[in-house]
Design brief:
By secondary structure, the chain is mainly alpha-helical. The protein has 15 helices and 5 strands. The strands form 2 sheets. A 3-stranded parallel sheet has the order 1-2-3. Strands 4-5 form a two-stranded parallel ribbon. β4, α10 and β5 form a beta-alpha-beta unit. α4 runs parallel beside α15 and α9 crosses α10. The structure holds adenosine-5'-triphosphate (ATP) and magnesium ion. The site of adenosine-5'-triphosphate has 20 residues, from α1. Adenosine-5'-triphosphate (ATP) binds next to α1.
């Protein structure tokens, strides 16, 4: 029997961090044998807000692949795909653009908050049209490519006819957009595409070291999977905690405190975590001890990841070859899906070119 498929991925905009791990990577590693798994490096999507510096993406791609191999994605089992070498995705995108309205795109909550966060453009409006759009809540200086990236993401997923998409909670609106496109496509052109489901990670949204709700490359509040033990200790020492605890004997709040969120996610010693929480609430433990124990737990978690990374880091040519070979393999899946799409749409008036 054919296995169901997984498609998920990351933008190569920097090293992967603990948020990626709990939101998505852990599920990929866990499910790679059960599902036919494709892991996409979304370098074309990384261009949507980095198009002025495409040259830096190549190195980022290698780094992301090293992170994948380090966490235990097995290249003999899962298929790593480089988006820019998979033209079927881009062609699907163009077809799907006709199925989505501008108002649907501007309503996407993730896109909305990312636009605010990244502050596109110079913020001064040139003419009446820009003022009119701004008054409607649409940043007139957002590149069309950025606004349309949820459509491109729908193309990523459906190019593999994936059933399941392991992602962090911030990506849920993207999967919803994909499902809408699939339903619309199938209704118009006949049952062709699989409607995918999101699989949200054990920790839906890991907070940042600065206490903001999401650890994110853009916000620079990350502990990276490739950080050294010393870097982890330093970042943990500087972490945001309960601000009202200026002394160790002041009772503290555990809920919403990122230090405890990380303990919950990465410290397997539940008794130790519960004891720290009790003493924290009672004002009987200093932040220094809570953080020391956290750094130790994080480093114990990261050590095997660092070791696997080092093995692959010493073989850069093999990593490059793996990217090419694996993407070639992926296209044996995306090619037939694109043909089925063209057939369904009857964009096959003259048959197929070889
Ligand atoms: P950028 O700031 O460049 O968008 P990012 O840190 O948000 O980077 P992405 O590459 O956009 O990372 O996310 C890749 C995957 O990791 C997505 O499935 C996303 O939901 C998940 N993810 C990222 N950050 C977190 C987090 N803090 N908690 C849970 N999941 C996360
Ligand atoms: Mg993101």
């Amino acid at each position: 029997m054919n296995k169901k498929r997984i498609l998920t991925g990351d933008r190569p905009t920097g090293p992967l961090h603990l948020g990626h791990y709990v939101g998505s990577l852990a599920n990929r590693v866990k499910l790679q044998h059960e599902y036919e798994t494709y892991v996409l490096i979304a370098d074309v999507q990384a261009l949507t807000d980095n198009f002025e510096h495409p040259e830096m993406l190549g190195e980022n791609v290698r780094e992301v692949v090293l992170d994948y191999l380090a966490v235990g994605i097995d290249p003999d089992v899962a298929t790593i795909v480089l988006q820019s070498m998979t033209p079927e995705i881009h062609e699907l995108s163009i077809y799907y653009m006709n199925l989505v309205t501008l108002s649907r795109l501007t309503r996407n909550p993730t896109v909305k908050s990312e636009i605010t966060q990244k502050s596109f453009g110079k913020g001064e409006f040139d003419d009446e049209e820009e003022h009119r759009l701004a008054a409607l809540g649409v940043n007139p200086q957002v590149p069309v490519g950025f606004l349309a990236y949820p459509i491109h993401q729908a193309a990523d997923i459906t190019a593999f006819n994936a059933h399941l998409v392991p992602v962090g909670a911030d990506q849920a609106p993207m999967i919803e957009q994909t499902r809408e496109i699939v339903r619309k496509f199938n209704a118009l052109y006949g049952e062709t595409l699989v409607e995918p489901a999101a699989l949200i990670g054990a920790v839906e949204r890991l907070p940042g070291t600065d206490g903001s709700p999401k650890m994110s490359k853009t916000l620079g509040n990350c502990i990276d999977l490739k950080d050294t033990a010393g870097e982890v200790e330093k970042k943990v020492r500087g972490m945001y905690t309960d601000p009202k605890r200026i002394r160790a004997d002041i009772p503290g709040t555990v809920e919403g405190n990122p230090v405890f969120a990380y303990h919950d996610a990465f410290n397997p010693n539940v008794d130790e975590v519960n004891d720290l929480k009790d003493r924290y609430r009672a004002g009987k433990v200093g932040d220094v001890e809570v953080k020391k124990k956290l750094a130790a737990a994080l480093n114990a978690f990261l050590d095997p990841i660092r070791e696997r990374r080092a093995v692959w880091e010493a073989r850069p040519k093999d990593v490059d070859e793996l990217i090419l070979e694996s993407t070639r393999r992926a296209r044996r899946t995306t090619g037939p899906v694109l043909e089925a799409v063209r057939d369904a749409m009857k964009v096959n008036y003259f048959g197929h070119l070889d």
